[in-house]
Amino acid sequence: MLGHVTAIARGEGLAIDYDRAIAANTFDAHRLVAWAAAQELQLNMIETLQRAHFVDGVDLGSPAELARLAGSIGLGEQAALAYLATPAGTDAVNADLAEARELGITSVPTFVVDRKYVVQGAQEPAVLRSALEEIARRETADAAR
């Protein structure tokens, strides 16, 4: 499976090195994403975390590493450390986890569109495009009724 995902990513110009990835509790990383969102830097934080994990082999369970990564996108390393030292964002992440359970999400990645359509697992880009086109077709048909 990992070879398949790596090949798909490579075909799209993305680097993934599972040999460097470190298994870690990413709860605080998710809290950091929520914090970044409040500062309109959510996408930057997600991209930075993904690169750190999948390419650079950074321990995303380490508050110091998380703070360093936050600092690299302009959030402020010391501010990130202070944030992570509090329970801030815990409720938001727990709510997201509860919603994922409610939607039946059991794997990563999972794409949920409009809380009605779910595509689970690493898929070829053509499969994702096809699924999105089908969703758009169904939504257009439903709207016309």
Describe this structure in words.
It contains seven helices and two strands. It has helices spanning 2-11, 27-37, 42-56, 63-72, 77-84, 90-102, 125-144, and strands at 110-113, 117-120. It is mainly alpha-helical. It folds into two domains: 2-102, Glutaredoxin (3-Layer(aba) Sandwich), CATH 3.40.30; 110-144, no CATH class. α4 (63-72) runs antiparallel to α5 (77-84). A two-stranded antiparallel ribbon has the order 1-2.
Unreliable segments (pLDDT under 50, ≥5 consecutive)?
Answer: none
The fourth-level CATH homologous superfamily of the largest domain is Glutaredoxin
Helix share bin: 55-70%
CATH topology-level fold name of the largest domain: Glutaredoxin
Radius of gyration: 17 Å
Structural class: mainly alpha
Percent in strands:
5-15%
Topology:
Layout: H1 2-11, H2 27-37, H3 42-56, H4 63-72, H5 77-84, H6 90-102, E1 110-113, E2 117-120, H7 125-144
Antiparallel strand pairs: 1-2
Helix pairs in contact: 2-3, 3-4, 4-5
Features:
145 residues, mainly alpha, Glutaredoxin, 7 helices, 60% helix
Short description:
This protein is mainly α and 145 residues long. The protein is built from 7 helices and 2 strands.
